[in-house]
Amino acid sequence: MKNDLIVTIFGSTGDLTARKLLPALAKLYKQKTITQNVKVICLGRRDYDTETYLNEMQKLTSKSLDLPHLSKFVEYFKMQITDLTDYQKLNTYIRSISNEHSKHIYYLAIGPEILADVAKNISESKLIEFNNTNQVLVFEKPFGHNLESAVKVNQMLWNYFDEKQIYRIDHYLGKEMIQNLMTLRFANRIFEDTWDSKSIESVKIFVKEEEGILNRAGYYDTSGALKDMVQSHLLQILSLVAMDPPNLYESDYIKDEKVKVIRSLNIDKKSVLFGQYKGYLEELNIPKDSKTETFVYFRVFVNTPRFRGVPFEILTGKKLSQKESYVEISYHKTSEQEKWNLPLHSNKLRILINPKGAVDLSINSKMPGLKDNLEVVHLNFTTTPSVEGNIPEAYEKLLLDIVEGSRTLFTRWDEIEASWHFIDEIKKCPHSLFVYESEHELMEKIN
Ligand code: BG6
């Protein structure tokens, strides 16, 4: 039978495939969100059959894989991803199981060192033909390690593929609360009218993790928190928080506004703090003299008419007290509040991204009773547990969007370019490396 959808995964024996891609595909298939006429081809050089492959994948993840469903559409295909003749064999096979309308997704879950070779082979073997938007390429960060290398990677991709055929994944964009940012801002009068420097005093974008680097020493030590988290996830959140409304709610219009934000960033050079958790140097395969940061904090200004003068605090790090990510908007006190001789708080809007989605607005209110006492009360909603079970994982949403050709949740090259430009600027700021044992020590240094 010919398949309507063929997803081919390069690097299919890795962590990402086991932990994220296979579970997401299984769920989309089981819920019939994607066609039942799908084939997922997992490439690897080991001598597996499909059953052995899936069993090996199960060993890589603590969650149980939906093997009954996966075995219906996954197929292991043995090949050397450096060998062009193997690509030609793959192409012959794919053609035999597809028709002229089939959608082809090539997912590169591979390291940056082989990206160029794989892209070239995909193009030369005609797995992807230039401009055919039914044949697309998906890949993940790192998109280079600085501006110069990112430009080279991108130029290389543009040699073979049209921008419309390239999907750059930032999995934070698939998270529910990040997708909700534009709705909260632009579909609510109370926020839309107050989303600027007249009302907002400061913004925090904090992404904290409790885990260390796990078993990713090789990648992490060459990256560090700034490139691993800020260049991608945190700058994406920042751009969604600070952007102006787009002329149309369509992918390119939204990106046009996001990129303006990233280009307008002005770092507060004196605020930059880099940290490394105690014990990092003892992690397996980390050089004993490594200076890689596992924590970064800085203040930045968004130099646009909307936000000029408002400090945005950016923080991310590993081995902190808990896994928690949020955006916190602090409002100015009202002019009337100044006249009151009472302890009044400024309103805060907290948008919780992890570990669950929630929105909390704190307001001042009179305490019930005969006295004029005030208290802070919270207007909030949380994704309730019954709904939570149904909340799609980021990768489900992103894979579905690729299948449907919806590009809003993927990054465009100019966003990446502007992000690297900014990251290279931060790298130049004078900073030392503070060795931390607890989040508390870091917070004391910041405040
Ligand atoms: C990845 C980073 O992009 O995001 C990891 O490479 C980090 O270092 C992870 O742990 C965090 O993602 P999430 O979805 O668990 O918050």
From TrEMBL:
<dbReference type="InterPro" id="IPR036291">
    <property type="entry name" value="NAD(P)-bd_dom_sf"/>
</dbReference>
<feature type="binding site">
    <location>
        <position position="141"/>
    </location>
    <ligand>
        <name>NADP(+)</name>
    </ligand>
</feature>
<protein>
    <recommendedName>
        <fullName>Glucose-6-phosphate 1-dehydrogenase</fullName>
        <ecNumber>1.1.1.49</ecNumber>
    </recommendedName>
</protein>
<feature type="binding site">
    <location>
        <position position="209"/>
    </location>
    <ligand>
        <name>substrate</name>
    </ligand>
</feature>
<comment type="similarity">
    <text>Belongs to the glucose-6-phosphate dehydrogenase family.</text>
</comment>
<dbReference type="GO" id="GO:0004345">
    <property type="term" value="F:glucose-6-phosphate dehydrogenase activity"/>
</dbReference>
<keyword id="KW-0119">Carbohydrate metabolism</keyword>
<dbReference type="Pfam" id="PF00479">
    <property type="entry name" value="G6PD_N"/>
</dbReference>
<feature type="binding site">
    <location>
        <position position="228"/>
    </location>
    <ligand>
        <name>substrate</name>
    </ligand>
</feature>
<feature type="binding site">
    <location>
        <position position="318"/>
    </location>
    <ligand>
        <name>substrate</name>
    </ligand>
</feature>
<comment type="pathway">
    <text>Carbohydrate degradation; pentose phosphate pathway; D-ribulose 5-phosphate from D-glucose 6-phosphate (oxidative stage): step 1/3.</text>
</comment>
<dbReference type="InterPro" id="IPR022675">
    <property type="entry name" value="G6P_DH_C"/>
</dbReference>
<feature type="active site" description="Proton acceptor">
    <location>
        <position position="233"/>
    </location>
</feature>
<comment type="function">
    <text>Catalyzes the oxidation of glucose 6-phosphate to 6-phosphogluconolactone.</text>
</comment>
<feature type="binding site">
    <location>
        <position position="323"/>
    </location>
    <ligand>
        <name>substrate</name>
    </ligand>
</feature>
<dbReference type="GO" id="GO:0009051">
    <property type="term" value="P:pentose-phosphate shunt, oxidative branch"/>
</dbReference>
<dbReference type="GO" id="GO:0006006">
    <property type="term" value="P:glucose metabolic process"/>
</dbReference>
<dbReference type="InterPro" id="IPR022674">
    <property type="entry name" value="G6P_DH_NAD-bd"/>
</dbReference>
<dbReference type="InterPro" id="IPR001282">
    <property type="entry name" value="G6P_DH"/>
</dbReference>
<dbReference type="GO" id="GO:0050661">
    <property type="term" value="F:NADP binding"/>
</dbReference>
<feature type="domain" description="Glucose-6-phosphate dehydrogenase C-terminal">
    <location>
        <begin position="182"/>
        <end position="430"/>
    </location>
</feature>
<feature type="binding site">
    <location>
        <position position="171"/>
    </location>
    <ligand>
        <name>substrate</name>
    </ligand>
</feature>
<feature type="domain" description="Glucose-6-phosphate dehydrogenase NAD-binding">
    <location>
        <begin position="9"/>
        <end position="180"/>
    </location>
</feature>
<keyword id="KW-0560">Oxidoreductase</keyword>
<dbReference type="InterPro" id="IPR019796">
    <property type="entry name" value="G6P_DH_AS"/>
</dbReference>
<keyword id="KW-0313">Glucose metabolism</keyword>
<dbReference type="GO" id="GO:0005829">
    <property type="term" value="C:cytosol"/>
</dbReference>
<feature type="binding site">
    <location>
        <position position="175"/>
    </location>
    <ligand>
        <name>substrate</name>
    </ligand>
</feature>
<keyword id="KW-0521">NADP</keyword>
<dbReference type="Pfam" id="PF02781">
    <property type="entry name" value="G6PD_C"/>
</dbReference>
<feature type="binding site">
    <location>
        <position position="45"/>
    </location>
    <ligand>
        <name>NADP(+)</name>
    </ligand>
</feature>
